Amino acid sequence: MTGPAESAREAAEGEYNFAYLDEQTKRMIRRAILKAIAVPGYQVPFASREMPMPYGWGTGGVQVTASILGRDDRLKVIDQGSDDTTNAVSIRAFFEKTAQVETTTQTGEATIIQTRHRIPEKALSQDQVIVYQVPIPEPLRYLEPRETETRKMHALAEYGLMHVKLYEDIARHGHIATTYAYPVKVDGRYVMDPSPTPKFDNPKMHGMKALQLFGAGREKRIYAIPPHTTVESLDFEDHPFKVQTFDRPCAICGAEEVYLDEVILDDRGGRMFVCSDTDHCEERRAAGHVGEAGGNPLEREGAA
Amino acid sequence: MSALLDTAAPLPGLPDPVHDSQAAFRAVMNALARPGKPQKLDTGDFQAPAPLSNTAGAIALSLFDYDTPVWLDAELAGSSQVWQFLRFHTGCPITDDPGEASFALVSDAEHMPPLSSFNQGTLEYPDRSTTIIAMVDKLTGAKAVTLSGPGLKKPAGFNASPLPPSFWNELAAIHAQFPRGVDMLFVTQKQVAGLPRSTRIEMKGR
């Protein structure tokens, strides 16, 4: 086992620069981040680097995190709300190795939270930064494939097409059927893709105390929402924006008004719905809350 | 030519380039994310050549490189020490056309050129604009303007001095053409405050 002091020495001897990226790359990304903050919701092009993980595994988020990360930061990484899935574990290990920073799974303890497609249930504070991994940053891309055209549409704030898309949902399904990557308008100007978070999380973006940064590695874009910024989910007067609701509370901790994941328990149709935010669930259980399953059935079986 | 010949080696750069530039960047990032709220920027033993202040120098070394043309005001452009220092440590091209600059360094904020002479970006690419780093004496005093918008929970008063008398009118006019515009960083000896173009500015006594 190498202690932090020893691994720091190894790095100094030329294993990796702090947080993997070279300083010129960090400067370029930092400049893009500053522009992104100054023009909320606008996608700033940047020279995305090849990272030691494939595109689609969060290379954009990793580059943003690597550029803002300092020695004293405490990093949390989540994948669909969970700290323990492959993507979260490998990115956390990546920064433990290349930056020797402290990591945590507790939302309240972290100074930087990198996320793939969820916002923690616990409200974030002004001293935190949340970094989203984004696959397709352009909300208009499936409606208009040409970059030259979507760029012009953003320049002129010409977003009629997006409302047509939402209207077509209503015409076909009777309601707006978009459930994730639900388009938002930032500070009344730019329409922005909130990354494929469930629309359940959209209201959390509005007026959030923490700075929100978005990185898309393959598509080479960075964008941001400063703290306390107006973020509206697009809708119609007669079809207002609504989030998903769940019939039952979390089976393990009994939490209501949180986003739930379906977990298959056996091959006889057994299933349960549990908190997608694992830290939130653990924290509630530690505080003595119990759901209808009376504890975690997977742990009882010894299957976990 | 003589400017390049008449002095000794440039002053040293940031003592710990990796972590010092990260710290300077985070201060600037927080400053732009929370407009008008001064952020502490401790430069330690680092020394920039006068008239470049230590804080402005640390920000310059953290953000400038060969990709960023830099415009200097007359006082800074007149100092071969400053030229050498920036050219040696960052490799940034130095331009005398403010409309072409990615960054502008202003040591004499009171005599800053009109803001409209800097690059405002385009509607398609608002990010191709100038970020102005203005060295001011203080960020306190009677509030000249009220700020609101992204990064501000509720409207807050702000002042920086000295600035040209027409400054706030110019900046309000520039912010009205959002998303085009310039972003301001005001630096004192120990602090940096940001004023991104997304901030709405209301003048007192209107």
UniProtKB/TrEMBL annotation, chain A:
List the GO biological process terms.
organic phosphonate catabolic process
Which organism does this sequence originate in? Stappia sediminis
Task: Look up keyword Cell inner membrane and say if it applies.
Answer: no
Q: Which GO terms describe its molecular function?
A: 4 iron, 4 sulfur cluster binding; alpha-D-ribose 1-methylphosphonate 5-phosphate C-P-lyase activity; metal ion binding
The role this protein plays is: Catalyzes the breakage of the C-P bond in alpha-D-ribose 1-methylphosphonate 5-phosphate (PRPn) forming alpha-D-ribose.
Q: What is the lineage of its organism?
A: Bacteria, Pseudomonadati, Pseudomonadota, Alphaproteobacteria, Hyphomicrobiales
EC annotation? Answer: 4.7.1.1
Q: What is the designated name of this protein? A: Alpha-D-ribose 1-methylphosphonate 5-phosphate C-P lyase
Swiss-Prot/TrEMBL keywords: 4Fe-4S, Iron, Iron-sulfur, Lyase, Metal-binding, S-adenosyl-L-methionine
Family listed? Belongs to the PhnJ family.
Q: Which InterPro entries match?
A: PhnJ
Is Lyase a UniProt keyword of this protein? yes
Q: One short Pfam family name for this protein? A: PhnJ
Reactions performed catalytically: alpha-D-ribose 1-methylphosphonate 5-phosphate + AH2 + S-adenosyl-L-methionine = alpha-D-ribose 1,2-cyclic phosphate 5-phosphate + methane + 5'-deoxyadenosine + L-methionine + A + H(+)
From TrEMBL, chain B:
Report whether Lyase shows up as a keyword of the record.
yes
Gene Ontology molecular-function annotations? lyase activity
Q: Which InterPro entries match?
A: PhnH-like_sp, Phosphonate_metab_PhnH
Keyword terms, alphabetized: Lyase
Keyword hit for Lyase? yes
Provide one Gene Ontology biological process annotation. organic phosphonate metabolic process
The protein depicted here goes by the name Phosphonate C-P lyase system protein PhnH
Species this protein is from: Stappia sediminis
